[in-house]
Input
Amino acid sequence: MDPASVPAPASPGPATAPPGDLAIWFFILAELLAFGVFFAAYAFARALNVALFDTMQQTLDRQAGALNTVLLISGSACVARAVEAVGRARSATGARWLLGGVACGAGFLVVKGIEYAAKFEAGINLSTNTFYMFYLSLTFFHFMHVILGMVILVALWVKTRQGAYGPADMNGIESGAAYWHMVDLVWIVLFPLVYVMR
Output
């Protein structure tokens, strides 16, 4: 075979940076590290008192936790669709998808708030036992991240409606979306770890 007729191997495309601003990725990594330390401490404490943790897990509302998982995954799907729409110069559609993400986040807060109210009404607090110390601390830490994520989504919604983002300028909306996906990812780990795994 003539060497000249052999096609040259395709050259790899240019390396692409992660979507959004680089600073948000440093922030996300720092947040994931904080949650990782929290999760490791939970696992260590659980290993020291498996019976207590298994018993206390049975007092959690797994249906509420599962519903919140669906809400956050749905919120992430909405945000992903918003980014896709804005990338196609469809700002109005993107803004509507962002509102969907906000609505899912609000649903999460309502469900979690009902869970907290039931626990507090039963007299449960941080000093009840080691399990509930971790449960309340971990889930409230995440709860605050959901609130921050919703604030970011609302800000993105306002700017998207104003036409601030488009195919030529995706940095802001991609950065906000990356943060929201991080919040979702943490819950996907937190829910089975605290509510389900025995």
Observations:
- The first helix runs from residue 22 to 48.
- Confidence is low (pLDDT under 50) at residues 8-15.
- The domain at 21-196 is CATH 1.20.120.80 (Four Helix Bundle (Hemerythrin (Met), subunit A)).
- Helices lie at 22-48, 50-57, 62-87, 91-121, 130-161, 171-196.
